[in-house]
Each structure stands twice: as C-alpha cells, then as structure tokens.
Amino acid sequence: MSGDTGAKNEVGLAEIFGAFLVIGATSFGGGAMAYLRHSLVDTRRWIDDPTFVQMLAMSQSLPGLNSTNMAVLAGDRLRGTLGAAAAICGLCLPGGLIMFVIGTLHHQHAERAFAAAMLHGVAATAVGLVMAVAVQLGRKVVSRIDDLAFVALAVIGVNLLHLSVLVVLAVVGALAIWWYRPRAELQQPPAQ
Amino acid sequence: MSQLPALIGVFAYLSLLTVGGGLAAFPELEHLTVDVYHWLTSTQLIHLYSLGQVAPGPNMMMVTAVGERVAGVAGAAAVIIAFFGPTSLLTLGTGRLWRTLEGWRWRESIQRGLAPVAVGLLLAGSISLAKGALTTWTGVGVAAAAFALLMSTRINPAFVVLCGAAVGLVVFGGR
Prior knowledge:
The complex is a heterodimer of chains A (192) and B (175). With 192 residues, chain A is mostly helical. Chain A contains eight helices and no strands. Chain A has two domains: 109 residues, no CATH class; 51 residues, no CATH class.
C-alpha cells in the first residue's frame, strides 16, 4: 500500500471503524455514497477527490453494493486488510441491527390490519423511490442510443424472458464490454 | 439449523449479482427465497425490502431480516457473512490488482460497458418490485406521487418512505 497518493497511512483501526459506524448510523435515505464522500474527502481528508472518484467507478463495476465496496477500498487504502474489515463492519452494523429488530417486529405484527395498511403504503412509496433512483442513475450513465439498447436488453431479459439475473449479467455485460472494447486508433496514436 | 447451508449458498450467490446496486438482485432474491425455498411470501419479502429503505447504511441490510426469519440470530449472522464476505474479498483483491492494471485498455471498456447494464438491472429490479407491491390503483397513485416528489425535490428518501406508512394507514386502513 506504500506510495499511494491520496491516503494517509497513520489512521488507526478504531478511528476507521468509528468513522464508518457514524456513516452507517446516519446515512438515512440510501445515499450512503454521498455521506462517504463527505466524511472521507471533505471532513477527514483521508482520501482526495480524484482517488474517491476512481474508487467509485470501481465500486460500481464490481459485484457487491456500491457503498460496501467503497468501504472495502477506502479501508484498504487507509490500513490494509484490517482497515477494510473495520470499515465494512462499521458501515453495516447499525443498519443490520435496525433491520434485525424491524424483521422481528414484522414477523410478530405484520398481520394486524393497521400494520398491513402501513406496509402497503411503505411498499408503494418504496417503488416510487427505486424508480427514481434508477431514472436518476440512468440520466447520468445513458448518453447514447447504444447505452439505451443495453438498458433495454437487461430489462427484457429479466422481466419479459424471465432469465436469471446471472445469465443477463453475463450475456449483456459481455456484449456491452465488447461493444466498448478498446480501439487501437482511439487509445494509442501511432508512434512516429 | 438445517437451513443455514442453504441460506449461505443463496445469499453468497445473490451478492455476486448486485452489480450497480442491491436492487439488481431483487428478481433472483424473490425467485429463490419465495418460489424455491418458501422461506417467506412474496408480500413479506416486499415488505422487508421496502422497510429496508428506511434503515440507514447500505441499502440491502434487509437481508438480515430474511436470515432472522428463517433461522433466528444464527440465520441473520450467516446471511450477513454470506452476502458481504465474498464480494468484499473480491473487491479487496481486485482493488489491489486494478491499480497495477493502470494501463490496461480493457479497464475503461469494462467500466463503460457495465454502467448501462447496471442501470438496466436496476430498472428490472424496480419493475419486479412494482409488480408485487402495486396491487391496487391507489397503490400506483401513491408510488407515482412518491416518484414525482423525489424527482422534483431534494427531500430525504427515507422520510418519503416513512410518510408512506402514514399515507397507507389513511388510504388502505379502511379495509
């Protein structure tokens, strides 16, 4: 890890765990990435902005949740494997405990009429939320007609053909990577 | 106890599908937990996923609740380790490798190509969720209102979903 730009090496494990625990406990509303950027780049200055953007791109291309991938990458930069473990544990602990309690309550009370009505409302708003997230991300990512074609292929594969997500990811993903394959003339101008 | 190996297998597999976000794995999550293993009903899964939007932190901590329902505390712990362990190790390894691949020209292709596919999988997950969650026209109206609100303001999404509970009590409570 030596020689990295954009990371301090003297950050303690407890400090890393504490920082991610605070993010894990306060990032209501799904935008954990914004909280991570604010904490790591702006407040603590553990990672600089270009490094963060680079790690964000990686987090998005790899399997795993974007926020937990970011925690692993940032923790690793700061303090190696143990730093990565401290970061992801801190990030997941509060939400995990809350969902454990919510799951238990749901188990016991979901059949009650008032709870069923509330849950119906929560589920409907959650649909509005996930649609908004997909559209907002789509606006950022989809800039050309071929991008739109890959979006459509993934939706058709999963929702209409009922293919497994794994199959769609493998086939459409491979096709898209090949479509945007490196082209010699664009990437490397011929040497004189 | 006997469910633990199945829980671990299912959630380790699901974690590998979450390219771009947890919702990408939702159709497969529903298929495996509801249709294949009968751990819970589709409605219960949709409830837990929706409630998960209210919790802070990574947006798939709802997997904890599925593990709890199937096998208590041990189930919750097993699911957490299975869902976050393998992908974290993969990210750790790839993160180190990625830096040594600075000049590798396919790197850009992978990022460029997977981005629209991730959006597509996210949209597909949203559609799967919508199919199960929107069982009435009133529900469709509530979803559309939440969508419009979130697209046009900077209101906190967790707050909107919480308000959904109050709206639900009013519009669906009469039955």
